[in-house]
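Worked example

This section walks through a single chain of length 215. The input is the sequence exactly as stored; nothing has been trimmed or padded.
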Amino acid sequence: MEKALKVKAICSILSSEDVDEAIDCIAQTFSQGEPMTSLLGISKEEFTYFAKVFITKAAREGMSVVARDIYSDQFMGCIICEDYVTDLPEGIEDISPNFNPIIALLESLGTCYKTEHSVNPGELYHLFMGGVYKEFAGSGVASQMSFFIEKLGKEKGYNGAIGEVTGPISQHVYINQLGYQPLYHIRYSDFLYEGKRIFKNITACEKCILIYKPL
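Given that input, the structure is written out below as tokens.
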């Protein structure tokens, strides 16, 4: 059972005014604990640019969510979303090449889905990346943001929400608590990048999973 909320959060659609805080939150979250990022030694500075590229685009599209403390307005977390069929953001060509193995794995997972399902714009709400500051971990903020996204997706006419969960916490929350279905997975120890099992030493989690929930 999910922990009782320790904080009161208010969720809203990511705007241009939230971009800098969202970038810091995502960069800090992923550089400190995401299995693939940690193994590859991707720095917070490298992830800051990566996050900036995608979050700047997300702020224009109105599909992402941020959570703030209802009393202090402190930034607590965000989930960056997009249409599952979308153009790459400007500046993607300048991200660190250290991201290439991660991108390759996620693309392989997406191919598993797309070879068996037709995918059209306006159908799947893609939960691309999310983060909650460490002091709010376990407080239910991620669940609140996810419920907000599901409501927003329904209002926009999407049929379902889809995303990749890469670590043990996100997999537990989305599959065991929020009712997302695991569709496809790639074991880190099996994935080949340029002929090498580059993620074979990941021990925190066995696999990366593509999840889905009808809206």
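What to look for: The first strand starts at residue 9 and ends at 13.
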